[in-house]
TrEMBL record:
This is Thaumatin-like protein. Belongs to the thaumatin family. Residues 1-24 form the signal peptide. The keyword Signal applies. Coiled coil: none annotated. Gene3D superfamilies: Thaumatin (2.60.110.10). Keywords: Disulfide bond, Signal. The lineage of its organism: Eukaryota, Viridiplantae, Streptophyta, Embryophyta, Tracheophyta. The keyword Disulfide bond applies. It comes from the Eukaryota. Disulfide bonds join 33-224, 74-84, 89-95, 146-196, 154-164, 168-177, 178-183.
């Protein structure tokens, strides 16, 4: 009887592990910008990507509050310590925390309600590099893009070297950050929404900014999409 119970436990463990492996997601992160970026991911770490290079990241099922972004104008020493002009994560090449605004974000949560993945691009923390976030498997055909000239058109009060801040990091008010849980669009959030209608422009912008795919879908994140023929 003890042997049977052990065997049954092993069987259920094997099935659980198999299901987890089957629903893991792969993220192909590509740099198509005409300049070097230092890709960052939480979870995942970070990597330097020269033009045309990519980084394949495997993300465990059930992962939530995950982000991928680009850092620009970075300098790191041989120990992986330094600083970036935009998107810096505590001065580390291998990010262990979210980046400092402004940074264009690909956000996701895997295998959530009804085993769906939830994905979005967010400008709540501002914008530094054009981005495309798309599904590449599982019959899901989601393509989210934010490629407008937001840095060039950025309102003066949001401008910083190399990027355009979101209003929340700048003003830190309930109106812009939704700290009280109740807020609406502002003139600043509309600036981002008009240029990237599929991206989050303020924290309550869910209806037009969050998308789903079946759990186990694989994804691609491209910085400066369209700059290389391989992106098409």
């Amino acid at each position: 009887m003890i042997f049977f119970k052990d065997l049954l436990s092993f069987f259920f463990l094997f099935v659980a592990l198999h299901l987890n492996l089957a629903s893991a997601a792969t993220f192909d992160i590509r740099n198509s910008c005409p300049y070097t970026v230092w890709a960052a991911a939480v979870p995942g770490g970070g990597r330097r990507l020269d033009r045309g290079q990519n980084w394949v990241l495997n993300v465990n099922p059930g992962t939530v509050a995950a982000r991928i972004w680009a850092r620009t104008n970075c300098q790191f020493d041989v120990a992986g310590r330094g600083r970036c002009q935009t998107g810096d994560c505590g001065g580390l090449l291998q990010c262990q925390s979210y980046g400092v605004p402004p940074n264009t974000l690909a956000e996701f949560a895997l295998n959530q309600f009804m085993n769906l993945d939830f994905i979005d691009i967010s400008n709540i923390d501002g914008f530094n590099v054009p981005m495309e976030f798309s599904s590449v498997s599982g019959g899901c055909n989601r393509v989210i893009r934010c490629t407008a000239d937001i840095v060039g058109q950025c309102p003066n009060e949001l401008k910083v070297p190399g990027g355009c801040n979101g209003p929340c990091p700048v003003f830190k008010t309930d109106e812009h950050c939704c700290n009280s849980g109740n807020c609406g669009p502002t003139n600043y959030s509309r600036f981002f929404k008009e240029r990237c209608p599929d991206a989050y422009s303020y924290p309550k912008d869910d209806q037009t900014s969050v998308f789903t795919c079946p759990g186990g879908t694989n994804y691609k994140v491209v910085f400066c999409p369209g700059n290389l023929s391989s992106d098409q």
